[in-house]
Write a structure and sequence with these properties.
Helix content: 40-55%
Largest sheet: 2 strands, antiparallel
Strand order of the largest sheet: 1-2
Distance between the termini: 65 Å
Radius of gyration: 19 Å
Structural class: mainly alpha
Low-confidence stretches: none
Strand content: 5-15%
Length: 130
Amino acid sequence: ATLVEVAETHAEVLSQLGVELQPLGPETLAVRALPAILSRPRSQQLIPRLLTELQNFGSLSSLQASIHEVLATLACHSSVRAGDALTLTEMNALLRAMESTERSDQCNHGRPTWFQMTLADLDQLFLRGR
């Protein structure tokens, strides 16, 4: 099945995720709606990945069982990356969102998103006092 056919077959599931796609041709889809988490510029590159995931799961029941994995992958790929330029307002908004998000201290792969260091830890890291 083509990704356009997958999008048509799973339109309801996609809609529940906040993704609305409209077929424009046999190999062309228009993105009509995306959830806020996917609003970053590279997010539209994730639509083919999402459709491939839907195609690989094969059935709605297996998709429902794996929906958290799909969302975690989408969140990971659309997250702020090292080197991304953020304004002070965006940085503050990100920190406020982390404060109110369960398990925001690690990514979905288990890597920490932040850690706390004392001044002594910093001194040791830079070999001060040796």
